[in-house]
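call fold(seq) -> tokens
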Amino acid sequence: MTAPVRLGLRENLAQFSLLVLINGFVGAMVGMERVVIPILAEEAYGLASYVAVLSFIITFGSAKALANLLAGRLGDQYGRKKLLIAGWMIGIPVPLILMWAPSWGWIVFANVLLGMNQGFSWTMTVVMKIDLVGPKQRGLALGINESVGYMAVGGAAFFSGLIMASGATDLVFQIATGIAIVALLVSFFFVRETAQHVSMEAGEIGDAPDVPSFQEVFRRTSWTNRRMFAACQAGLVNNLNDGLAWGLFPLFFASLGLTLAEVSGAVALYPLVWGVGQLFTGRLADSIGRTIPIVSGMILQGMSLLFLLSEPGNLGITLAMIGQGMGTALVYPSLLALISDASRPEWRSSSLGVYRLWRDGGYVVGAVMAGLLADRLGLGVSIGIIGGLTVISGLVALVNLTSQQEGE
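ret:
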């Protein structure tokens, strides 16, 4: 006998926990690159230009942004589970290509596949958790999801750096291959579709106008709804500075004289704080609304980048990485919850896909901007300019979110 469909985290705890585990696997896949690939770019492939070093992030961000958009739409049309499985099928070859790559071009190609893996798999774990819990616990659900995902990013970055320092770089990619295979099997055999939960929530809300076309959803999410526009621009700038952190922080810290182990610790601290913090900030966004966490988080991120330049010693780096992680923790689940608040269940996946297109497009913008600025003006100037842009983004969000308060 089929169990009745119910909304809520406790009511769907087994499936919710399974999706949390899978999202940890998604985070680990990208975390393995956080230290390893930027260092390999210089040491193994001899890349001297920062733009060339960041080319793998440009391709990753482009592929992930487009995969987010596609996954969101297809998730509404064909269900979530199929897209989750497809993401893992695409992800399995990635660490093998990275391990055997004969040239930098193969690294770039692997990151196209990694972006598609992240776009399909992470998007579907987000959407399926929202489907399961219903409208009252979105912030909490997304906080847990993003927390585990980014703790996995930070943990994988830290241990990958230690493994690389020991001289066993191939072991990083072998472990990642095992993770991808396990995630595919778990997704195929144990994850259940959430379409019935979507139908139940839609029925509880009541009759709605006709489902808007995809073009209308794109337009509404991107700019005509001011709250959604605020989320999209903040998400883009958030990942703009995360692209900077991913590609240039390892090189910046190394230029300050840090050992590879110290670089690994510094690079990992930011996503670890980001991950742990979201256990609390998601619930906070449910309690006080989305505006305060988004605005304060963006400003804190920007100020942390500026502080890093003013205090580049060990203590300054530690405090800057903690501030960057706390700021991102405030922002990330709140932005996803805001988009979910402003969209109906019938087209929520599409709207989240549009938001995630803009957000992960920030990797592309950030990598290009950071690389060009660093090549011409130096690493420090690049970090400072992007820090200033992040503060401005927080002020843009403040203006748009406080001008239209409904939904708080």
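The chain has a mean pLDDT of 91.
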